[in-house]
Every structure is written in C-alpha cells, then in structure tokens.
Design goal:
The two termini are about 20 Å apart. The chain has one domain (about 1-20, about 40-159): Sandwich (Jelly Rolls), CATH 2.60.120.10. Mean pLDDT is about 85; it is low at about 1-30. It is globular. Helix content is about 15%, strand content about 35%. The longest helix is centred in the N-terminal third of the chain and has 14 residues, at about 1-15. By secondary structure, the chain is mostly beta strands.
C-alpha cells in the first residue's frame, strides 16, 4: 500500500499545474518603487489542496509549477504520516516550519523540529515521517520538476 502511495505522487505531479498560485504584487503595476516585482502571499491566502491518492499530504504552490520545473511550495504532512524509502530527481532545499519531521538517511533517523533545514541532492534515498501529534509543515525550494520515486521499484525492475 505504501508503494501505491508513492506511485500516486508521480501521478499527482501532472495535476499540480492547475494549483499554481501567485498573489498580486504589492504595487498593481507589479513593481515597487525600486527593483522588480514583489510577490506577497499572506498565510490566509495560501491555497491548500489534497494530494490525490496520497492520504495525509497537502500541497500549496506559491511560486512556479511543481509539475513542470523549479518552484516554491509548502507541503503539509498529518501527524503520524510515514513514507517508505524513496528519492526525488530534483535538488531541493527545505525548512521545517511546524511539527517534528523525521528523516531516515543511510538507515539513521534524524528528528528535525521547527526551524531545521535539510537538502537532498543527487537523488539521495530517504524515508520521511511526521511525528504523531502536530502536523508537519515544510517550506520547499525545488530546483526542477518535483517527483517522488520509490526505491523499491528500482529493485523490482532489476529482477
């Protein structure tokens, strides 16, 4: 069932393009007094959507389209959520905003409370979970198309 959950993430990427959100700039013309455009999105205006086929995950794109390329978005995991070993193709840089995220890398679990930072490059395999209790909220800076690739599928393909 967990494999099906991660496979569903691959399907989800195709549907995310309709979720891309951009708030109006501070200036109606899109430019401040100095410099280029400003994008300001109050928390109340962030639009959350359930990730189809993946119980316990919500996504809120705030810049770009995660299904097509570089983007910034929020991910929310319900307390108690767990995903088996997987990797992501794109390099990504993440700040834990709320909850306690547990990442298992190279077989070693590491608890990351709010304010923690992590990055994965080179398709680093890992397991992700959110401690029971509070939901986990992550701020994502992703440098390419967002995907979730189950590691066990690679092993099955080699058989």
């Amino acid at each position: 069932m967990k494999t099906n959950t991660l496979r569903a993430a691959l399907v989800v990427a195709a549907g995310l393009s309709s979720l891309s959100v951009h708030a109006p700039a501070a200036d109606p013309a899109g430019k401040s007094a100095k410099g280029g455009p400003a994008v300001l999105i109050p928390a109340a205006n962030i639009q959350w959507s359930a990730v189809p086929g993946m119980t316990g995950i919500q996504i809120a794109p705030v810049d770009g389209d995660p299904s097509k390329g570089p983007s910034h978005f929020f991910l929310k995991f319900t307390g108690g959520f767990a995903a088996p070993l997987h990797h992501h193709t794109a390099e990504h840089f993440v700040t834990v905003v709320a909850g306690t995220l547990v990442l298992t890398v190279d077989g070693k679990p590491q608890k990351l409370p709010p304010g923690s930072f992590f990055t994965f490059t080179g398709k680093k395999p890992h397991m992700t979970s959110c401690e029971a209790g509070a939901d986990c909220l992550l701020s994502m800076d992703v440098r390419g198309k967002w995907d979730v690739v189950p590691e066990e599928d690679k092993a099955a393909a080699k058989k």
